[in-house]
Amino acid sequence: MDLPAMLLQHEVTVEPWEGTNGYGVATYGVPRTVACWLDHRRRLVRAATGDEVVSESTMYAQLGLVAPPESRVMLPDGRVATVIQALTHDGGELPVPSHVELVLT
Which of 5, 57, 82, 101 could bridge to 87 as Cys pair (CB 3.0-4.6 Å)? Predict the structure, then answer.
């Protein structure tokens, strides 16, 4: 079961992190416009490194979105956020909405 369309009120642009090139410069995939739900709430979370960092927003989108940590997300207000955590919530055959949750700086 997907997220209900009525919840996908926002649009963001996601550039998936691909790593660094031979010169140590960050590289990103093709930008993709994504319908989502944004929750602008500040909270303390743990990054992949184990460090505590402050998240300014959380984004919820349909399954299939590829945006690993360090990906860039252009928010509707023009701010560029970085993905701290990318979590997949797949309910399988259960009647719950399956989705991707991105915790953003």
Answer: 101
